Amino acid sequence: MTTVRQRRVGKGTEAAEDQPSEETNVKPDGKIPPGPPGGKLWNILSITVGGIVAISLGLLTSVYVATLHENDLWFSNIKEVEREISFRTECGLYYSYYKQMIQAASIQQGLHGLVYDNKTESVRTINILERMNVYQEVFLSILYRILPIQQYLEPVYFYIYTLFGLQAVYVIALYVTSWLLSGTWLSGLLAACWYITNRVDTTRVEFTIPLRENWALPFFAVQIAAITYLLRTHLQPAQQRLTLMAVFIATFLFSLTWQFNQFMMLIQALALFILDCLDMLPTAKVTWLYIIQISGLLLVCVLQFFNSMILGSLLISFSVSVLIARTIQKNLKKGGLLNRLGKLILHVLLVLCLTLLINKFIKKILNLESDEHIFKFLKAKFGFGATRDFDANLYLCEEAFGLLPLNTFSRLSSTLLFYVYGFVLFLLTVAAVIVAFRNLSGSNQVQLKEKMEEYTVTLRPDAAYSLVHTVLFGCLALSTMRMKYLWTSHMCVFASFGLCSAEVWKLLLKCLHLYTSQRTQVIKYSVPIITLLYISFKFWPGIMDELSELREFYDPDTVELMNWIKSNTPSTAVFAGSMQLLAGVKLCTGRTLTNHPHYEDKNLRERTKQIYQIYAKRSPGDVHRILRSFGTDYVILEDSICYERRHSRGCRLRDLLDVANGHIMDGLGENEPDLKPSVYPRFCEEIKKNLPSYTTHFTRVFQNKTFHVYKLAKHK
Fold first, then answer.
1. Stretch 239-253: mean pLDDT, rounded?
2. Against a cut of 0.85, is the pTM above it?
3. Which GO terms describe its cellular component (predicted)?
């Protein structure tokens, strides 16, 4: 197993404007609260200082995570093979295409090798640019080749520094979003500080560098910042057009860099749909955002050679359904409360039915099954019947796809983030309910506004969007731990905005009958400053200790395996094994694989299940036949899988295979009544006894404490 250990040495290197009626439905005085008094010069000075602070914090965050990565692995000192092994599982697979492009004789040859790839899946030629989101690796490799930096910077450093640089973009986008919402850059400063001090729960870039989300989330944050600005009232037409262009570019880049983009944007589309139905966002802007989502995704579809998974996405079906339903129900936002509620229920049902019909029709036409494992997983996860499906159970048994652990909240609370977040969430949720009820009941007449001007609860469109966004992504994070990074980063924005917002404090003080303008301004600045001082005094020493802790990469067994493969097997050899390990085999040795971790393909999922019979109770003849059907020359067995103890009984890989094969599981415990004992012992255990029935098909050619490599006999 790969580990890190303490270093033996002491030092390391360091559109047209919206109709007034639409805006009035949202907030009577929808302008952002002005900054501190002092006129135009003060505003320019404030914006300049705020911008400098944003850029500085972004750069410091990049340096921070880069230093942590170096200190954790001693990356600058370890061998090339160790650096590559440190890119674990699918990270190694993605990085291998960057390496492949760098090592190609020309850019054209490199691209040809990706479009007609026959080394990622044996006995198959696949289009990597269609199947995987690796355009970022292609772009970076071309950039590295044409820039005069080869003699100064190794390819791997150009790659990781780009990812760490994107962290600067990420933090700046969070900072700007909070600033736009609150009207003060102090809010952005607090958001950035919370992001850094809650690093364990806001990012994992320092140890999963090539992961797709590390490319995509900075662009998603930029998109949210642009949407926040777009939802401000009284934008000039030129401002609105430029903002829409920024939203489109950010949406396109987000979609291009992550295969799960469609699911994240579906949640975003649901947020827009909810707010539009409640008359809390201007309809014209919501329509533009739907169009941008669809067009951005379709452009990515074209670049990915018309990837059918994108065409069959729920996002496209949903967005089209909303636009069709809105055309059918033109008078949706007219009438009294009961009338509006009735229309709203019909509207929701119509959109739901249209979405399912359109999606089913597209999948039927395209014969699309690439994402069926995700829906099987969701069905089993939320209790709609037990499943023996191997792929669904593989996800269900992984901690990353389980519920968000409770200790996450204790960590977030230690920085005060969760407490502030809960406080702001409660206040704005109450405000949103009041505003939604008022909008639906049509009780926001001018006379009523004038009569209750001082007491009317309002919620700006950008704040309303931020509220629903954080609620929906919070639900996603609570249900699936891996998705918490989409929530926790926005949690920093939302909490800091609330703490620095005059409107939030005004609402609270009015409820307590303590409101004065001066008191609101004092609290608006003093509470965030006190919070910043608390965070600094409590966490600065810990950050310094973290930066001074020096460790190094240590995985001698995997290094030995990769070196042996490079030295003792032909370059055309085909290897079978676990998909996580094989990603490293491809990166470190360039050998051909039978399977890999990019799981969004039905044929690959079926192939992986077959390859994994090496850990099931199958006869040596069956296993040999299966492996040879995929052109396998060598198979790698891992003791950590064969004798797995990380998962409990029922979730070990061998248990999943036994249940899928109809066999009872090993060890004490219950089995389903229709499961039967296997007539064969477990292959990965029995092969080590060198019995004649096994040695006829398999010859052991390498072993160490972790891995056993067997060469397959080529029977006629």
1. 97
2. yes
3. nuclear inner membrane
Q: What's the length of the chain?
A: 716
Query: Is 447 a residue whose pLDDT tops 80?
Result: no
Instruction: Give the pLDDT mean for 73-94.
Output: 95
Which residues have CB under 8 Å from 635's CB, separation 6+? 575, 576, 577, 614, 627, 698, 709, 710, 712
CA-CA distance, 699 to 687, in Å (whole number)? 10
Buried b (16+ CB within 10 A) or exposed e, 85-120: bbbbbbbbbbbbbbbbbbebeeeeebbebbeebebb
C-alpha closest to that of 227 among 198, 250, 193, 261: 250
Confidence of residue 455 (pLDDT cuts 50, 70, 90): very low
Q: What percent of the chain has pLDDT over 70?
A: 92
Residue 131, phi then psi, degrees to nearest 5: -80, -35
Q: Give the pLDDT confidence score for residue 456 in this predicted structure.
A: 67
Of 263-272, 372-381, 646-655, which has the strongest mean pLDDT? 263-272
Residue 260 CA, distance from chain mean position:
7
Q: Which of 161, 175, 166 is nearest to 57 (CA)?
A: 175
360 vs 100: CA distance, rounded Å: 38
3-state secondary structure 206-270: CCCCCCHHHHHHHHHHHHHHHHHHHCCCCCCHHHHHHHHHHHHHHHHHHHHHCCCHHHHHHHHHH
Cα distances (Å, whole numbers) of residue 354 to 91, 318, 357, 360, 667: 38, 8, 5, 10, 49
Of 159-173, 183-197, 340-354, 358-372, the range with the lowest mean pLDDT is 358-372
Residues contacting 418, CB < 8 A, separation 6+ = 409, 412, 491
Name the DSSP class of 386.
Answer: -
> To 10 degrees, the CA torsion angle through 425, 427, 433, 435?
-120
| Nearest CA among 164, 159, 98 for reference residue 133 | 98
* Three-class secondary structure assignment of 117-141: ECCCCCCCCECHHHHCCCHHHHHHH
Cβ atoms within 10 Å of 40's Cβ, excluding its own: 7
For residue 19, pLDDT over 90 is answered with no
Query: What would the mean pLDDT of 360-382 be, rounded to a whole number?
Result: 80
Counts of helices then strands in the chain (DSSP H, E): 34, 7
Confidence of residue 13 (pLDDT cuts 50, 70, 90): very low
Q: How many CA atoms lie within 13 A of 600 on its CB side?
A: 15
User: Which stretches of 574-682 are DSSP H helices?
Assistant: 579-589, 602-611, 620-629, 639-642, 653-660
* Per-residue pLDDT at 7: 58
Determine contact, residues 83/577, Cβ cutoff 8 Å: no
pLDDT of residue 385: 63
Q: What domains sit in the chain, N to C, each tagged with a CATH number?
A: 87-150 (no CATH), 163-548 (no CATH), 556-712 (3.40.50)
- Amino acid type, 308: S
One-letter amino acid of 657 = L
Q: Say yes or no to pLDDT of 368 above 90.
A: no
Q: Please state at what angle helix 602-611 crosses helix 372-381, rounded to 10 degrees.
A: 70
Residue 513 one-letter amino acid: H
Structure token pair of residue 73: 């692995």
pLDDT in tens, 563-622: 999 999 999 999 999 999 999 999 999 999 999 999 888 899 999 999 999 999 999 999
Q: Count the alpha carbons within 13 Å of 676 in the hemisphere toward its beta carbon.
A: 3
Looking at the predicted structure, is the pLDDT value of residue 25 above 80? Answer: no
Strands 707-712 and 634-638: antiparallel
Bridge-based pairing state of the strands 707-712 and 698-703: antiparallel
User: Is 405 strand, coil or helix?
Assistant: coil
Backbone angles phi, psi at 663, to 5 degrees: -105, 150
Distance CA 119, CA 121 (A): 6
